[in-house]
């Protein structure tokens, strides 16, 4: 399946070939030849991210090794008005790293060093191409870790995490990327080095660090990140609760939080996701259940014991048919292994799947799960749900077969409808995967024209020529007026 956005010219288009050759020559005046990929077979692997339905071959791929080289590349592209799309590991799920056909992909993969680890200051300074998990692995020797833990953490980079404001299982208690980053060095569209944030808890002026985090590579190129490290909790235990009704499991989530308990993670999987994960990993999940909740509690032994008892009682009262408590670290890891492998597991039961990402207030969980099933049936498609229930961050996985005529279109229509449902109940169209190219239409539902104008004003303050990741994140007014005229779903406007 492939959908080119926007319709691109062929790789061997004579005009493109000429500008490719000329730009490659200019880049190679200060970069080694092998750091500039120009042949079709070399650039093809960069044509999409994890949302492979959108593909576009870039003009060139450039792999700098240090900040000085990144700055030189940016200066050259700025002088020549060449668009630049930054790329980490390419695991993004909203098409954020989708290349621009007439621009370069700037891969930060070679900037992959942990520059400093300061256990006494509880921080690490890392380059953008460092993998998320590598930070916790390096910090483990000091009893520390980096809390935001996307399920893709084995592969995704901290530069990508910053761009998407990534979350994960433990973000309910410990916060998203934005809550765990202290400072950033970035290279601007014009090639200047800019520092945001610092080690102090507050700073004067606008909070540009918070503004930058989640800006999807549209405001600058991240070249260094200072992250907060946390002491590993002395003990963690996980509970696995089975339910014979999805709505009851959804309601139990709200009850746990309402009781004043803040789990380290509170995740939910429905029947299709449970069975797919069990077939794949054999985590010992109850395959007859309509839904399971995984609830992790951490702290001192006494704190964890008291919380486990309270949550067990709450779950039983909420209608759980079975509650298991992990007896040791091996069992806790096994409970989580099924959840962490759920996306690839679902990939085994369907030729294609489309992972949506929206956030709702927790109290709306039962209603939204019921409406999701109804909408899936209306679109004649199956959905597996596996998500960060405690945060209200939904990930409906729409199962489809792109080779069947019309299924991709129905899938996209269902996906759009599900995101708009999130807005209807007071939520948002993304929880952690970003807008990219995927959710430009739904941005027009979430925000008014006046609000979108402010987004554009911020973009042009950082990048007046519009060279950084063009066409992503924020829709143009024209695109919104076209989207609003589409016949399909009702477009409820909040404003
Ligand atoms: C199986 C699977 C599970 C996932 N689970 C989660 C999850 O639990 N939570 C979650 O939040 N996400 C999850 N994701 C999505 C994805 O892993 C995250 O969005 C991740 O942060 C992307 O990092 P990356 O290095 O792959 O970035 P890329 O995909 O390469 O890029 C993502 C965006 O960041 C920009 N970018 C990358 N590096 C830089 C830089 N140095 N400077 C400026 N901009 C940059 C790109 O232009 C693009 O817009 C999952 C993905 C997969 C495939």
What is the topological layout?
Elements: E1 3-4, H1 14-27, E2 36-37, H2 40-43, E3 54-55, E4 60-62, H3 67-80, E5 84-87, E6 104-107, E7 114-118, E8 123-126, H4 132-139, E9 144-145, H5 158-164, H6 171-174, E10 181-187, E11 193-197, H7 208-212, E12 221-228, E13 230-231, E14 235-243, H8 246-258, E15 265-270, H9 271-281, E16 291-299, H10 301-317, E17 322-325, H11 329-340, H12 342-349, E18 352-355, E19 358-359, H13 365-378, E20 382-387, E21 393-394, E22 396-400, H14 407-424, H15 440-446, H16 449-462, H17 477-484
Parallel strand pairs: 1-3, 4-6, 5-6
Antiparallel strand pairs: 2-4, 7-8, 8-12, 9-13, 10-11, 10-12, 14-16, 14-17, 15-16, 15-20, 18-22, 19-21, 20-22
Bound molecules: flavin-adenine dinucleotide.
Protein name: FAD-binding protein
GO molecular function: FAD binding; oxidoreductase activity
Domain FAD-binding PCMH-type: 54-232
Structure explained in plain terms:
This protein folds into four domains: 3-107, 2-Layer Sandwich (Uridine Diphospho-n-acetylenolpyruvylglucosamine Reductase, domain 2); 115-231, Uridine Diphospho-n-acetylenolpyruvylglucosamine Reductase, domain 3, CATH 3.30.465.10; 235-345, 2-Layer Sandwich (Alpha-Beta Plaits), CATH 3.30.70; 348-484, Alpha-Beta Plaits, CATH 3.30.70.2740. By secondary structure, the protein is of the alpha+beta class. Mean pLDDT is 94; it is low at 489-495. The two termini are 37 Å apart. The chain contains 17 helices and 22 strands. The strands form six sheets. Strands 17-14-16-15-20-22-18 form a seven-stranded antiparallel sheet, sandwiched between helices. The protein has a five-stranded antiparallel sheet with strand order 7-8-12-10-11. The chain has a four-stranded mixed sheet with strand order 2-4-6-5, covered by helices on one side. Strand 7 and strand 8 (123-126) form a beta hairpin. The radius of gyration is 23 Å and the shape is globular. Helix 13 packs antiparallel against helix 14 (407-424). Flavin-adenine dinucleotide binds at residues 49-50, 85-93, 96-97, 108, 128, 150-152, 156-157, 159-161, 163-164, 166-168, 216-217, 221-222, 343, 432-433, 469.
